[in-house]
Amino acid sequence: MSDFASQSSHSLTASEIGRYSRQLIVEELGVKGQERLRDASVLIVGAGGLGCPVAMYLAAAGVGKLGVVDHDDVSIDNLHRQVLHSESSVDTPKAHSIQTALNRLNSSVTVVPYCMQLTSKNALNIIKDYDIVADCSDNAATRYLVNDACVLTGKPLVSGSALRWEGQLTVYHNGKDCPCYRCIYPEPPRPDMVTNCADGGVIGPVVGVIGSMQALEVIKVVTGVGSSFAGNLFLFDGLMGRTRSIKLRSRREDCLVCGHQPTVTELIDYELMCGSGACDKIRPLKLLAPSERMLATEYAEKRRQGSHKGTALLDTRPVGEFAFCHLPEAINIPLEEMRSLDWAQIAARLPGQSAAQSLTQVVAVCHRGNDSQLAVQLLREKLAAAAVSSDSLSVVDLVGGLEAWAAEVDVAFPRY
Amino acid sequence: GCIDVTIEFSGGAELLVGKQKIHKASLPSNRDWTIRSLLPWIAEHLMKTDRPELLIENGTVRPGILVLVNDTDWELLGELSYVIKPNDTITFISTLHGG
Questions:
Q1: What are phi and psi of A144, to 5 degrees?
Q2: Which of A282, A335, A332 has its CA nearest to residue A77?
Q3: In angstroms, what is the C-alpha Rg of chain A?
Q4: CB atoms A246 and B96 under 8 Å
Q5: For A187, which residue in chain B has the nearest alpha carbon?
Q6: Gap between the Cα atoms of A76 and A414, Å rounded
Q7: What DSSP letter does each residue of A263-326 carry, written as one string?
């Protein structure tokens, strides 16, 4: 036995001291903190924009075991923010991609990939093997599920979220008076009031900031330094360059899951509770009958024959999205703007009014064919209000939107 | 006279009020103002939409929006009954779910 090992009052090896020396030197962390990190296990729910920095910093810091849950594969439009994945891991499971990256970063960390959706059936069984959970998910149903599972198994929860330029972070269920997610948000928002990253967009460094702070709070909880955000909400606004920390209410005595007389004593159906699925994929709406819709291939055929002269293509996407790609004949009136216009104002912006051939059809198009259906309904109301007969002007939408156009008509058209 | 307050929106809630995050408002001081009475005032004066239900539901703020008074959770201050004072900042934050 070397002199080092025989003299030592801690269990760190010489190589561990070398590797982690720059954080060991920091007084509040020290050898005790490093031992706790090495003996700790952290479950990361979601291997996306938040999960990547959380996994990266925790593996780098020497957390002994990291579980990573994600049912999804890496896609090319993830890479601007999900920085552990790379071009070579596109179309492979995100949990595996993270495992590969972490093995390269720190081979002493045990990484357990779970290539599955976290559900009411498997959550308790997975979470029970971990000390603490980082919620890096992308939807309301999973957030309630993770919260309830953490309360039922007695684990602290470090929760982050982000959209566009903004991020939010809170540590839940960490100490006697600390609220859980349900204490703050007893009722889920209506699904149509929730915007996800696929619809609203998100700036990469914003999830980087929030994910890095989640990793920091995990380190503080695990090492016993203590969290700064237990019962506090941290707000980050990257556009305005502003951060704030908000004092939240204490644990609610009447909380359904962590209160005095809980009624949620086992996991429930969270997709039902939230009225939305446990992923951020966009679900196709079916508001219109097939006869009220036009296929991308039908519209392409109309164009090819030159019989689209009396047809106006109305693109209902936001101005910014219209700017990065559109069909040349399309007129852009965003859905939100359209709500405040009457038919005469809309018609004035459409072509074909003064030409020899007058307007006989409006085709609404959007990104994926959901908003365009709402636009058709809206246009019909406005036409009725203006007493325009549906015989003289038909209004349809393009099924599947520009995604379908790119898939079925023009492979060179950008997909996003 | 008027009660000058700042009304802030963030987390996407600003999309309900013309994408403007900070609004300076002067409320007529001929009456007491609570958050309860502020909500219809916001719907009438700030919301650039004909859908007030995006903010207000059953007379209160809809689920998914957190309300702060001077950076404190409104639940600690009486929620709808909180009496608004001059120079208060009332904040409506939409909860984010993305990641």
A1: -65, -40
A2: A282
A3: 26
A4: no
A5: B63
A6: 13
A7: S--S---HHHHHTS-SS-PPPPP--S-GGGEE-HHHHHHHHHHTTTTTEEEEE-S-HHHHHH--
Tell me the residues of chain A between 183 and 222 that have a Cβ less than 8 Å away from chain B: 184-190, 193-197, 200, 202, 207
Q: Burial, B50: exposed, middle or buried (Cβ in 10 Å; 0-12, 13-18, 19+)?
A: exposed
Using CA atoms, how far apart are residues A168 and A189, in angstroms rounded to an integer?
17
What are A312's strand-pairing partners? Answer: A362
Residue A143: other Cβ atoms inside 10 A: 27
What ipTM was reported for this prediction?
Answer: 0.93
Question: What does the alpha-carbon distance between residue A215 and residue A84 come to, in Å, rounded to a whole number?
Answer: 15
Q: Provide the CA A85 distance to its chain's centre, in angstroms.
A: 16
Query: What would the 3-class secondary structure string for A35-98 be?
Result: HHHHCCEEEEECCCCCHHHHHHHHHHHCCCEEEEECCCEECHHHCCCCCCCCHHHECCEHHHHH
A171: its two tokens: 């540590």
Provide the CA B54 distance to its chain's centre, in angstroms.
12
Contact of A73 with A91, CB cutoff 8 Å = yes
Backbone φ, ψ for residue A176 (5° rounding): -60, -50
CB nearest to A247's CB, from B21, B54, B72: B72
What residues of A act catalytically?
Answer: 197, 366
Q: Is A78 annotated as a binding residue?
A: yes
Q: Is A81 marked as a binding-site residue?
A: yes
Provide the token pair at A149.
């599972």
Residues from chain B contacting residue A143 (CB–CB below 8 Å): 97
Quote the tokens at residue A7.
């003299």
pLDDT in tens, chain A (416 residues): 567 766 778 999 999 999 999 999 999 999 999 999 999 999 999 999 999 999 999 999 999 999 999 999 999 999 999 999 999 999 999 999 999 999 999 999 999 999 999 999 999 999 999 999 999 999 999 999 999 999 999 999 999 999 999 999 999 999 989 999 999 999 998 877 777 777 789 999 999 999 999 999 999 999 999 999 999 999 999 999 999 999 999 999 999 999 999 999 999 999 989 887 777 677 777 888 888 999 999 999 998 887 767 899 999 999 999 998 999 999 999 998 999 899 999 999 988 655 555 888 999 999 999 999 999 999 999 999 998 887 888 999 999 999 999 999 999 999 98
d(CA A178, CA A158): 12
Torsion angle in degrees (nearest 10) through CA of A319, A321, A323, A328: -100
